[in-house]
Amino acid sequence: MSRAVAAGADALAIFTAATDAFTKHNIGMTIAESLSAARPVLDEAAGLGWWRRAYVSTAFGCPYTGRVEPAAAIEVGLRLAALGAEEICFGDTIGVAVPDQVAELTARALEAGLPRERIAFHFHDTRGTALANVAAGLRAGIRTFDASTGGTGGCPYAPGAAGNLATEDLVYFLDASGWSHGLRLAGILEAAEFISGVLGRPLGSKVGQAGGWDPATGAASPRP
Length: 224
Known about the structure:
By secondary structure, the chain is α/β, with parallel strands linked by helices. It has two domains: 2-165, TIM Barrel (Alpha-Beta Barrel), CATH 3.20.20; 183-224, no CATH class. The protein has nine helices and eight strands. The longest helix has 17 residues, at 31-47.
């Protein structure tokens, strides 16, 4: 927090998880310990007028304990909200969620009193369900989703986890579905190509490989 203040930040995100097993591997604490550690950080950020987000990792499944029930993830989310987190982001850290589970978690979070506008999702595309999960979230009224240009990312404590949902795949999907979002696919693809070159690895995203598509002409939009 001190380094963030010195750097001129005006927002922060803190991380815990829905299982003690993952939290211990990821940040060396139990859930309860992580919440105790988060309290003074969130308090200071609130005092500075910063925007505050909190992540509940392994909200659908844990690599060490298996399936996670929605109630467990929601309980942690509510405790984070009570500590002053303005947005609660439920993470599918190992990419096991399917759309029905996203709909169920959202509905139960709303029933538990977490406002729709304070819910976000973070999907990994490990098993190819990330975009389908976004669609389920949109149907449930959620409007905030994490994505990573080029589909980069992962977690060393989530064995087998692939990258995050690629921003270019998400933007193409939103464009084709008629959603307004403020991003330009060509620019995202240019950034993805840059990241691919820096990392020395090919793009794993579908739109990164194929480019966009012009429905007026039927032609594929070339990659940068």
